[in-house]
């Protein structure tokens, strides 16, 4: 999974680098859908058992699948293996470039993080499957991180270009993903529980890989009780209201009683024939990493599974915790591995360079660790991409900054310009994984030696 390991481990603390890469790779394997789906879905003759709930396959007319998000193909593929039954209809919106064919299911590559025409067509197909589903049908909704951008269905009053521009504005402002989704779900005909409402009277089973800090089920079949007014307030609070396209502002300001605006209530969704199963979340990933660290003989400590904030600031803060461990054997005795999950963000100006949250975190950490021999750090976007790059993250230690300066690269200048990819590549500290088949936000590991 992790590529170019030789070039990542031929400098610095080579053993620490190898161990961090091994911990990360084994953790990602444990949370891959081929393992998590099998743990929750199994067939027993004519019975399908989903997280303890039983479905009689002899009484089910058809089984359909709606999937979206980075790694959603892997979820649906694992589901098909567990079902051992033909799927009557299906649409999966995978990230463009990572799509691959599945039997009986149409797989498309749609835009991320900015929605595109392919995602719009996938949204139309999802509505079509939902509207055709009957009371004797079973529909699996497989959701992973990225689904909000890749499966879109804006109301007729909001053109795709307006939705795309709104998404771009929210991302550039560095908003946490939960705030971005709070706005997007009120610009959709399927989000905020609307898809669950359309699926009724069919039975809907949502399998979700949670990539939000809250760790709870989310997606187009889940209601949250928020209103369009809440979305307006969030945009105004962040100073973004005036920057949002006119069709979006007009739509969000429509009366709350309008059926085209108000999402179904949690009580309404709760009364529908539906089941929700969390396949994995940040806690699952961090616990796996801690166990893998312990298996290598390290003391392990999970600092948090829900870290948020500006990447460079979080990098400075967590690096100081690692230095504390190296100096005073607290909050964990050395040798130890400090684990954290969650999702940091970068506020991106118009003149920003190339990078992503994990790369910026890693470069920030490298500056804090310059010339320290006892701390090595890995920051990884678990879907295999970090920002709009093909780099997944960075692996840094006390040698990263000195090596860069020897090559005439000023890491602080690049950090200030949000241009973290260039120095990490120059230092051979950029981490590549390719497609991982999952998406559980970020994984950050600090290995502290004695």
Automatic annotation (TrEMBL):
Coiled coil start-end: none
All copies of domain MOFRL, residue ranges: 336-442
SUPFAM superfamilies found in the cross-reference section: GckA/TtuD-like
MF-aspect GO terms: glycerate kinase activity
Record-annotated MOFRL-associated domain positions: 20-252
InterPro entries: GK-like_C_sf, GK_N_sf, MOFRL, MOFRL_assoc_dom, MOFRL_protein
Tree of life domain: Archaea
Gene Ontology CC terms: cytoplasm
Protein name in UniProt: DUF4147 domain-containing protein
Organism: Halorarum salinum
């Amino acid at each position: 999974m992790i590529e170019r390991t030789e070039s990542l481990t031929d400098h610095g603390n080579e053993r620490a680098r190898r161990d961090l890469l091994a911990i990360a790779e084994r953790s990602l394997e444990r949370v891959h859908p081929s393992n998590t789906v099998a743990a929750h879905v199994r067939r027993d003759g004519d019975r399908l058992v989903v997280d303890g709930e039983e479905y009689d396959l002899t009484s089910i007319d058809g089984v359909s699948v709606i999937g979206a998000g980075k790694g959603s193909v892997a979820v649906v593929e694992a589901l098909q293996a567990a079902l051992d039954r033909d799927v009557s209809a299906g649409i999966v919106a995978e990230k463009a470039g990572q799509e691959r064919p599945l039997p009986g299911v149409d797989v498309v590559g749609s835009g991320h993080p900015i929605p595109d025409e392919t995602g719009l067509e996938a949204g139309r197909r999802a509505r079509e499957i939902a509207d055709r589903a009957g009371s004797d049908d079973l529909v699996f909704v497989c959701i992973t991180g990225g689904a909000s951008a890749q499966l879109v269905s804006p109301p007729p009053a909001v053109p795709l270009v307006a939705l795309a521009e709104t998404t771009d504005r929210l991302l550039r402002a560095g908003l946490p993903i939960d705030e971005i989704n709070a706005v997007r779900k009120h610009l959709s005909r399927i989000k905020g529980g609307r898809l669950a409402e359309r699926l009724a009277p069919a039975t809907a089973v949502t399998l979700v890989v949670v990539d939000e800090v809250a760790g709870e089920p989310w997606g187009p079949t889940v209601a949250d009780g928020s209103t369009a007014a809440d979305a307006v307030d969030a945009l105004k609070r962040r100073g973004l209201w005036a920057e949002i396209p006119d069709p979006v502002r007009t739509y969000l300001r429509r009366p709350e009683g309008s059926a085209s605006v108000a999402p179904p209530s949690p009580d309404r969704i709760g009364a529908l024939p539906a089941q929700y199963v969390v396949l994995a979340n940040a806690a699952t990933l961090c616990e796996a990493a801690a166990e893998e660290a312990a298996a290598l003989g390290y003391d392990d400590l999970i600092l948090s599974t829900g870290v948020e904030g500006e990447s460079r600031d979080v990098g400075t803060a967590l690096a100081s915790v690692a230095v504390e461990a190296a100096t005073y054997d607290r909050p964990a005795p050395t040798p130890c591995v400090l684990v954290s999950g969650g999702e940091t963000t970068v506020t991106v100006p118009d003149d920003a360079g190339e990078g992503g949250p994990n790369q910026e975190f890693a470069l920030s950490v490298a500056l804090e660790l310059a010339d320290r021999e006892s701390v090595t750090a890995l920051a990884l976007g678990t879907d295999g991409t970090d920002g709009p790059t093909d780099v997944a993250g960075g692996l840094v230690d006390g040698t990263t900054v000195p090596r860069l300066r020897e090559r005439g690269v000023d890491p602080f200048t690049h950090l200030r310009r949000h241009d973290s990819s260039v120095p990490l590549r120059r230092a051979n500290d950029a981490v590549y994984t390719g497609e991982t088949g999952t998406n559980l936000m970020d994984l950050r590991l600090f290995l502290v030696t004695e």
